[in-house]
Amino acid sequence: MRAIFLWLLVLALSCLVGCAKIETSDNPADSGTNSDAGEDAGPDTGTDTDTDTDTDTDTDTDMDTDTDTDTDTDTDTDTDTDTDTDTDPSICGDGAITGTEDCDDLGESATCDDDCTFVSCGDGNTNTTSGEECDDSGQSPTCDDDCTFVSCGDGNINTSAGEDCDDFGESATCDDDCTVAVCGDWTVNTTAGEQCDDGPPASGDGCDVNCQLECTAASITTTYAGLNIFHGNMFDITAINDIIVHTFDVNVAPGNHVIEIHYRAGSYVGYNTSSTGWTLGGSAPIVSSGTGSGTPVPVDINLIMTAGQTYGFYVTTQGTSMNYTTGDLIVANSDLSFNFGHGGAYPFNLTSTVRSWNGTVHYGACN
Fold this sequence. Notes:
367 residues, Jelly Rolls, nine-stranded antiparallel beta sheet, five-stranded antiparallel beta sheet, 2 helices, 25% strand
């Protein structure tokens, strides 16, 4: 609009100047001869095109419509062609190992966790297929560092669970509660040589400062009557008070013999033809003192029996030399009772019933 206005203004001024020139140049002619109506009329109406058709149309094609073509389309082609499109099409559990997956076995397997990483105890992922019971990324109060549940006696020392030691059970240095073996800790550790443990060591209370029972030497004898003979006998002893069974005297035929002493917790009955549950307390060679008299056997089994406990015993030779008595002889005192048993062949084939062993039991009375 500004350009058009300027153009019109210039045009108007041009016209005004042109017209003034014609007007002033005509005046002398008008005041002259009468030829004004004559040939002067020609040129006066001539094509004095000085109509100032000044075609300087100056349309100002500067269409300054501000079509500022700086459309700023921001052709910044930084379309982030970062080829790490990170589309990561991997899907853990689809059976295809892609992306960052170590493995993919369609779920948990013995070698691959369900998060598609290789199985590793301590990775915090419990893989039961591979045998893991737990996985707390290491030792915890409920999980060992081998990914098994904490259990005293499993051989794995778990300090987080309060274990001081773990030797798969009682040992000379470790109690069966996974604490260090110490006399006075209220836990009797027979492997460490303790016979008792009643807390802080003291003498005169039945358990001395070395955790040994304070017992009085005693003995009980069945009979030396004999009248029957074979390899050996089985019988039961029941403790009335706390006792420690030590050694045996036997009634054997004259000569040299090897004596074996076995014992088992509970009655021997039902195990007279089986070695199941029997413990060999020891064996030793002896020279018989003669039939009808006691011959000491130098084997101290040092077996502690608490009041009310029953143990089965098997005293035998390897030859037909043990004297015993047919009949149901029962002997008892204030410390223990001795019951009749079986006689028979070595090693575990005692089928003759109601046979009473001949001999003496030496023990400690700990009441």
